[in-house]
């Protein structure tokens, strides 16, 4: 033993939260469901153009609920790539180009072991098991910006919406957040939108619809209106119904159709003392990370864009962009 650390003998097997044993695995052997994610983005132009630096967020971080086994990144035309960690410790690739081209192609392929849970019962500290509660003073400096409201709501419409989940007395914290997640799924229409940017939470409330990133930002606004720390997550969504490697597969665990698969996906994490940063997917009304492959975590959506860059040429040189995301088991 070392002060503050526990040392385990080599060869020890640890069953972390979220790990499940396979039915035919030896006792103590956790199941290791493998998922493969292929993410291809192609930009096309009328004539060869030059490219500025491109910033890529395709590579997830290892954690107790997800282990990266292999990763490959293919870029055409040839690029020089350097890696860094941003202010949130996300893994970032910066691609620099020398030669012009009529087509710019990025293909990311990752293989990972995924241990997400579906509708878990969170182990929350006793003082935070009912709402309202206050975060410990030593955590507030680190959580502060994630608790602040970042977008205008002069008429307090978000407050009025979220107060409908409060009966006037204490309520179980987990129940409150689960109810908000499911209400967004049921009350708002999911719609695809390929234009840049994210709707303000008030806009999403007034329209009653939005993309996954709009609904995620709306839930962030609702959580922050309650004084809770919330942050934006970008990644991928696994839908067994779209997985041709599994025969007779269905979508969500409750049999409902999963929204937002086949593309990049966005959801929310809320910080709960004792449970840490917990995953909520308001687009699908799902709690826990069973179908969610986390890649980037940030305070705001614009800080977690999967791909951004520039080109040098006329506006009319640009033809179109094509994105294809496939998540399969194995």
Structure described in brief:
The protein has 330 residues and is of the alpha+beta class. The chain has helices at residues 140-147, 157-163, 173-187, 201-207, 212-225; strands at residues 34-51, 54-56, 66-76, 79-85, 91-97, 101-114, 130-131, 171-172, 189-190, 209-210, 230-237, 264-272, 276-281, 286-287, 292-298, 307-308, 311-312, 318-329.
Write the layout of secondary structure elements.
Blueprint: E1 34-51, E2 54-56, E3 66-76, E4 79-85, E5 91-97, E6 101-114, E7 130-131, H1 140-147, H2 157-163, E8 171-172, H3 173-187, E9 189-190, H4 201-207, E10 209-210, H5 212-225, E11 230-237, E12 264-272, E13 276-281, E14 286-287, E15 292-298, E16 307-308, E17 311-312, E18 318-329
Can you walk through the features of this model?
By secondary structure, this protein is of the alpha+beta class. Helices cover 15% and strands 35% of the residues. Strands 1, 3, 6, 17 and 18 form a five-stranded antiparallel β-sheet that branches. Strands 14-13-12-11-15 form a five-stranded antiparallel β-sheet, covered by helices on one side. Strand 4 (79-85) and strand 5 (91-97) form a beta hairpin. Helix 3 packs antiparallel against helix 5 (212-225) and helix 4 crosses helix 5 (212-225). The radius of gyration is 21 Å and the shape is globular. Mean pLDDT is 86; it is low at 1-30.
């Amino acid at each position: 033993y070392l002060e503050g650390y526990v040392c385990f003998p080599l060869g020890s097997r640890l069953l972390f939260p979220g790990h499940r044993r396979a039915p035919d695995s030896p006792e103590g052997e956790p199941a290791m469901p493998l998922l493969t994610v292929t993410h291809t983005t192609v930009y096309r132009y009328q004539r060869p153009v030059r490219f500025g630096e491109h910033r890529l967020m395709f590579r997830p971080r290892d954690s107790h609920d997800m282990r990266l086994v292999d990763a490959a990144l293919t870029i055409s035309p040839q690029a020089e790539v350097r890696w860094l960690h941003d202010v949130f410790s996300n893994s970032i690739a910066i691609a620099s180009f020398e030669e012009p081209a009529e087509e710019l192609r990025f293909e990311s392929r990752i293989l990972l072991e995924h241990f997400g849970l579906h509708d878990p019962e969170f182990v929350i500290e006793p003082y935070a098991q009912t709402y309202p509660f206050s975060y410990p003073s030593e955590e507030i400096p680190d959580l502060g910006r994630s608790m602040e409201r970042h977008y205008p709501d002069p008429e307090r419409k978000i407050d009025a919406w979220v107060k409908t989940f409060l009966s006037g007395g204490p309520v179980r914290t987990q129940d409150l957040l689960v109810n908000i997640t499911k209400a967004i799924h049921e009350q708002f229409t999911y719609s695809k939108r390929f234009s840049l940017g994210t709707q303000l939470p008030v806009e999403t409330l007034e329209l009653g619809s939005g993309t996954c990133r709009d609904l995620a930002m709306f839930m962030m606004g609702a959580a922050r209106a309650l004084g809770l720390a919330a942050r934006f997550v970008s990644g991928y969504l696994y839908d067994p119904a779209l997985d041709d490697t599994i025969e007779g597969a269905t979508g969500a665990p409750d049999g409902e159709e999963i929204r937002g698969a086949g593309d990049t996906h966005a959801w929310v994490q809320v910080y709960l003392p004792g449970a840490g940063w917990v995953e909520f997917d308001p687009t699908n009304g799902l709690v826990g990370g069973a179908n969610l492959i986390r890649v980037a975590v940030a305070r705001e959506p614009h800080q977690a864009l999967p791909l951004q860059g520039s080109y040098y040429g006329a506006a009319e040189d640009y033809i179109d962009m094509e994105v294809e995301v496939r998540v399969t088991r194995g």
